[in-house]
Amino acid sequence: MPLALIALSLSLPGAVTAATGDPKAPLVKSLKRELRKGFQPVTDREIRDAIVPVDINSDGIDDWQINFSPLGSAWCGTGGCRYQLWLGSAKGLPRLVFDRQMREVTIVKRQGRTVFVFDFHGSQCGGFGAEACPGEFAWDKRSGTFALQPTPGKHTGLAKPIVRIW
Predict the structure, then answer these.
(1) Cα(18)–Cα(13) distance, integer angstroms
(2) Count of domains in the chain?
(3) Are 148 and 136 in contact (CB under 8 A)?
(4) Residue 34, domain member (yes or no)
(5) Would you say residue 82 lies in a domain?
(6) Count of beta carbons in the 10 Å neighbourhood of residue 128
């Protein structure tokens, strides 16, 4: 399902969140729909386990990460596995702020900010093979975006927070 449709579907199940008190409910429902149209069977438990709370912007509202790696090889390629970050909101549903393939992610705190250190390579860098282009991203309050941070001594120029229509 294209992410635009997922985003649209996230605007519909607000009653599910209110009725169950489960902040994951809209993401679970949307992810289920996308995965069930996909390539291999995935259980409800696997879907729920793939959606993990994370703090993107230090606002005290749950944000979410979805690592597709445990959901099967259909979501992975030579550039790694699909990974998404959704920014939570006190007044509405989460909003997709990051969606791309990566090999690994490490989440660290630096100067009071949450920094996501990604290992990208190959086609995710605009190249091929094992060419690496690590990227570090953090929430930029001024622009309201998940932005690439300079990483001294590392090539990060092509590592962008791609949000794709899948």
Answers:
(1) 9
(2) 1
(3) yes
(4) yes
(5) yes
(6) 11
Residues in the chain: 166
Where in the sequence is the domain holding 73, given as residue range(s)?
3-149
Long-range contacts (CB closer than 8 Å, 24 or more residues apart) made by 117-120: 118/83, 118/159, 119/80, 120/79, 120/80, 120/159
> What CA–CA distance (Å, rounded) separates 78 from 162?
17
Strands (E), the chain: 51-54, 63-67, 76-77, 80-87, 95-102, 104-110, 113-119, 135-140, 145-149
Domain membership flag for residue 142: yes
- Which has the minimum average pLDDT: 11-25, 67-81, 101-115? 11-25
Does a structural domain hold residue 160?
no
pTM: 0.74
Confidence of residue 1 (pLDDT cuts 50, 70, 90): very low
Query: 């607000």: which residue's tokens?
Result: 14
| Residue with token string 């209110």 | 18
Backbone angles phi, psi at 47, to 5 degrees: -65, -50
Residue 147 pairs in a beta bridge with: 138
pLDDT at 154 over 70: no
